[in-house]
Amino acid sequence: MKLNKIALALVATAATAASAGVTVTPLVGYQYQDEAHKKQREIFKTGQQLNGANTNAPTNPTNGGVALESDLYTGVALGVELTPSTQFQVEYGVTDTDARASKASANAHPRNVFDAKEEIISGNFLIGTEQFSGYTNNKFKPYVLIGAGQAKYKVESREQLLDGTPAGTEVSESKDTIGNLGLGARYLINDALALRGEARAVHNFDNAWWEGQALAGLEVTLGGRLAPTVPVAPIHEPVVTTPPVVTTPPVVTTPPVIVIEAPEVVDSDGDGVADHLDLCPNTPRNVVVDANGCPVERAVQEDLRMELRVFFDRDKSNIKPQFREEVAKVAEKMREFPNATAAIEGHASKDSKRSSARYNQRLSEARANAVKSMLSNEFGIAPNRVSAVGYGFDRPAVPNDTAENKALNRRVYAVIQGNKVTNVVETR
């Protein structure tokens, strides 16, 4: 199958999976051909006798077949980020060079040197090693390249040939499926620019030869790079085992029957129940009691509502030390109110009209998840009691017109709500 179908499938797959910025990379380098010369002479036939050899000889390297010379490669790659360290790119490149049977043929006569052009279009995956080892802040980013594409070769006469063929006439061509495999690395200059260098092996599947490439380029990222998501470690709710309740039957004692003549009613604590009937003596004044002289309790519901605000530095999602105490207060109240929940909102500032909505959306999510992670990982609040959502720069607290206002918009806002029921002694 030719690459025009393969490339369309790869582009469609990558466009569906991609979730962030676009990269544009001009490339320049060296296209190495020497290892492919024998095979190329069998494919690129000129129909001419070169070096005075017999054109009917099937294997003689000078029977009219020519090979491409190693030369300069120029191209450009358009890519989409799939993860913070991996992307898919569609690349187009050209090598304009000479084609000849041998140095002897080239020296024999100018007509034995032909103009050759190789055009390559390919779809390549750049898979960063951090995809497997974990994201770091190191600016040096190694990667592996793998892909497929199509190479189009064209050989034209430079001089008028012996049979009268005019200069500039195409004498041979080939369209072949290729595969790319290589190693490279990027050096991040800033959020938008990166230097890139790599070495590739290019295999021609249709004609079974190898070519080599050594390339360098300047990668430009449009819309900002993908930021790594802050991981939240799973927290398992501790299993509380309730010990079995052992019921001890009450000890029933039969009081002796005492006959008292004209008993005097005594109520020492003044709760309205005589001492000889009062099961709870010394009840405080103004406390409502039952028929046994014991305090009457009633259930009282207490509601919780509190707010939390955490502010962040530009393009950062880590919580500054001065806000850790505020998060700790929230965790203390949530432990006091076992059914309390926290709804966390992450926000970002809009620094300019060109600010990336997609980048700031992910940044706001990372900030919300950072607060959720601290509540869960450091203070033991179950993750199912905490929700986190990011709104990008769509919900500013104040206009993004000054540096102070932008700092106020780089925030996390959380609402904590819950209630609990407490039994209290009823008073008059």
What attributes does this structure have?
428 residues, alpha+beta, Porin, 60s Ribosomal Protein L30, Chain: A, 2 domains, 8-stranded antiparallel barrel, 4-stranded mixed sheet, 7 helices, 13 strands
Explain this structure.
This protein is α+β, with helices and mostly antiparallel strands and 428 residues long. It contains seven helices and 13 strands. The strands form two sheets. It has an eight-stranded antiparallel beta barrel with strand order 1-3-4-5-6-7-8-9. The longest helix has 22 residues. The radius of gyration is 40 Å and the shape is rod-shaped. The termini are far apart. About 6% of the residues have low confidence.
What's the short version?
With 428 residues, this protein is of the alpha+beta class.
List the helices and strands and how they pair.
Elements: H1 3-17, E1 22-32, H2 37-43, E2 67-68, E3 71-83, E4 86-100, H3 103-108, E5 114-128, H4 130-133, E6 140-157, E7 170-188, E8 193-204, E9 209-222, E10 297-311, H5 324-336, E11 341-346, H6 357-378, E12 386-390, H7 403-409, E13 411-425
Parallel strand pairs: 11-12
Antiparallel strand pairs: 1-3, 1-9, 2-4, 3-4, 4-5, 5-6, 6-7, 7-8, 8-9, 10-13, 11-13
- Supply the CATH architecture of the largest domain: Beta Barrel
Radius of gyration from CA coordinates: 40 Å
| Category from helices, strands and their pairing | alpha+beta
Q: Treating each run of at least 4 consecutive H or I residues as one helix, how many helices?
A: 7
Spans with pLDDT under 50 lasting ≥5 residues?
A: 6-19, 53-62
Into which percentage range does the β-strand content fall? Answer: 35-45%
CATH class of the largest domain: Mainly Beta
Task: Give me the count of strands.
Answer: 13
Count of structural domains? 2
What is the global morphology? rod-shaped
Q: Could you spell the SSE succession in H and E letters? A: HEHEEEHEHEEEEEHEHEHE
Provide the CATH topology of the largest domain: Porin
Average pLDDT: 85
Strand neighbour order, sheet with most strands: 1-3-4-5-6-7-8-9
The main β sheet shows up as: 8 strands, antiparallel, barrel
